[in-house]
């Protein structure tokens, strides 16, 4: 099964329980947005892998003048996002498609956010990072929070069943394409795994 189809099938079920379960291990999402706000007032925001829209709501509230675009390959996740985002009207556009760059809007985004999605794009995460570099305005920010690694082989295998790769592969690639303003790795649950935050500008 192709990776995109496998993830769509995965989220056909998990979309129903996503918001009531993922808070327990998707750490750092709200903090990432506050750290963006301390540096930047974006006018045009893209979130890749927007899921059920929780980050889009945070950003719509935190950046009330901004226009936002959310992109996800799961129709089931976007159905929930649309309901959640109704109060924000046409400020927020949702796109049902995988991310392969957005040439019609190239260089128009001054903030691109990826929250716990890069670690699930296997293969193809390198191309996503390269395309973000092309779609980001010259003075824009990339902001990422995601799984980093784990010393526990059994836990890594279990996460692999859930389409997550945790081998520390993302942060070095991000640092190749972007100059870091904030690159932090933190422990979760006493070190069962580590997650990272990265905020950078085009290098």
From TrEMBL:
Name this protein carries in UniProt: Class I SAM-dependent methyltransferase
Signal peptide (from-to): none
Superkingdom per UniProt: Bacteria
Species the sequence originates in: Candidatus Competibacter phosphatis
Pfam families per record: Methyltransf_25
Claim: Oxidoreductase is one of the keywords in the record: no
One MF annotation (Gene Ontology) recorded for this entry: methyltransferase activity
GO biological process: methylation
Keyword list, A-Z: Methyltransferase, Transferase
Domain Methyltransferase: 45-140
Alphabetized PANTHER family for the sequence: TRANS-ACONITATE 2-METHYLTRANSFERASE, TRANS-ACONITATE 2-METHYLTRANSFERASE-RELATED
């Amino acid at each position: 099964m192709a990776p995109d189809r496998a993830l769509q099938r995965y989220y056909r079920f998990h979309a129903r329980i996503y918001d009531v379960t993922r808070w327990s291990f998707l750490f750092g999402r709200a903090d990432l947005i506050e750290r963006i706000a301390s540096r930047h007032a974006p006018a045009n925001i893209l979130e890749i892998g927007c899921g059920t829209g929780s980050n889009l709501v945070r950003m719509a509230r935190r950046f009330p003048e901004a226009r936002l675009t959310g992109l996800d390959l799961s129709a089931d996740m976007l159905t929930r996002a649309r309901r959640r985002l109704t109060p924000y009207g046409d400020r927020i556009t949702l796109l049902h498609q995988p991310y392969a760059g957005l040439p019609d809007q190239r260089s128009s985004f001054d903030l691109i956010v990826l929250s716990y999605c890069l670690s699930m794009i296997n293969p193809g995460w390198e191309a996503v990072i390269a395309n973000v570099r092309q779609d980001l305005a010259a003075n824009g920010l990339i902001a990422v929070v995601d799984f980093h690694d784990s010393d526990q082989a059994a836990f890594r295998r279990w996460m692999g069943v859930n389409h997550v790769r945790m081998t520390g592969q993302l942060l070095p690639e991000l640092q190749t394409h972007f100059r870091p303003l904030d690159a932090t790795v933190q422990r979760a649950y006493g070190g069962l795994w580590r997650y990272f935050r990265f905020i950078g500008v085009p290098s």
